[in-house]
Specification:
Keywords: Endonuclease, Hydrolase, Nuclease
Strand order of the largest sheet: 5-8-10-11-12-13
Radius of gyration: 19 Å
Shape: globular
Number of domains: 1
Structural class: alpha+beta
InterPro entries: Nuclease_put_TT1808, Restrct_endonuc-II-like, Uma2
CATH superfamily: tt1808, chain A
Protein name: Uma2 family endonuclease
Largest sheet: 6 strands, mixed
Oligomer: single chain
CATH architecture: Alpha-Beta Complex
GO molecular function: endonuclease activity
Number of strands: 15
Strand content: 25-35%
Length: 206
C-alpha cells in the first residue's frame, strides 16, 4: 500500500514512492533491493515478498535438511541438499525451503558463479507451509503447477499445524504431480526416490 501523508488541508499530499521504477523487474532489480529481512521471489517480471519464516518453520527445515543430507550420503547419491536456495524455473526465481540438486550440476553452477540453480537439475523441492500467510496459496497451488512445468521430479509439501504432515508428490507421465504418500506425525514416511529416505514427521518439531 502506498503511504499518503498530509500536514494540512491547504498543502499538497506527499506520496512515499519506492526508489526503484515500477516493474516489470529483472534479476538485477531483485538483487539491487536492500536486505530487509524478507524472502523475495521474481515471478513473471514481478517481485513477490513473504516474511522470513518463523523459528518453528526454520527449525523444521534444518532438521529435515540434516536428515536428507545424511540419507543421501548413506545411499552414495551425488546430490546437494540445501535450503533456502534460489532456483530458476523459467518464468520465476523461486526460493524453496529445501532443494535437492544433482551434485555435478551443483558443482558446475558454483564454478561459473551462477545466480541460481536451474530447475532442470533439481531432483526434489520442499516447501513448508506458513499457514494464514500470503505464501500459503502459492505453495499449495501456484508452485504445484510451476514446479511440474519445470520438470522437477518430486515436490513435498509440509504442514506443521495442527500436527506435522508430509505430502510427497511425484511427477507423472502426464506432466502433473500425484500424491504418492501423505504421512502424519506418529507414522513414517518412506520413499525410494531420489534416494531411500524415511522419517516420522513428528521429528520436525523435536
Amino acid at each position: 500500500m502506498t503511504d499518503v501523508a498530509t500536514t494540512s488541508p491547504a498543502r499538497t499530499p506527499m506520496i512515499a514512492v519506492p526508489d526503484w521504477p515500477y516493474g516489470p523487474y529483472t534479476i538485477d532489480d531483485l538483487d539491487a533491493l536492500p536486505d530487509e529481512g524478507v524472502r523475495r521471489e521474481l515471478v513473471n517480471g514481478w517481485i513477490t515478498v513473504a516474511p522470513w519464516p518463523s523459528t518453528v518453520h526454520d527449525h523444521a527445515a534444518k532438521v529435515l535438511e540434516r536428515a536428507l543430507d545424511r540419507a543421501a550420503e548413506a545411499a552414495g547419491a551425488d546430490l546437494y541438499v540445501k535450503g533456502p536456495l534460489d532456483i530458476d524455473t523459467g518464468p520465476a526465481i523461486r526460493v524453496p525451503d529445501l532443494v535437492v540438486v544433482d551434485g555435478g550440476a551443483a558443482r558446475a553452477a558454483r564454478a561459473r558463479n551462477a545466480r541460481a540453480y536451474d530447475a532442470m537439475d533439481v531432483q526434489l523441492v520442499i516447501e513448508i507451509v506458513s499457514p494464514r500467510s500470503g505464501s500459503e496459496r502459492t505453495d499449495r497451488v501456484d508452485k504445484v503447477f510451476e514446479y511440474a512445468r519445470a520438470g522437477i521430479p518430486h515436490y513435498w509439501l509440509i504442514d506443521l499445524e495442527p500436527v506435522p504432515v508430509v505430502a510427497a508428490r511425484t511427477l507423472g507421465a502426464d506432466g502433473r504431480y500425484h500424491v504418492t504418500a501423505s504421512v502424519t506425525a506418529g507414522s513414517t514416511l518412506k520413499v525410494d526416490d531420489p534416494f531411500p529416505f524415511s522419517i516420522d514427521p513428528a521429528r520436525l518439531l523435536g
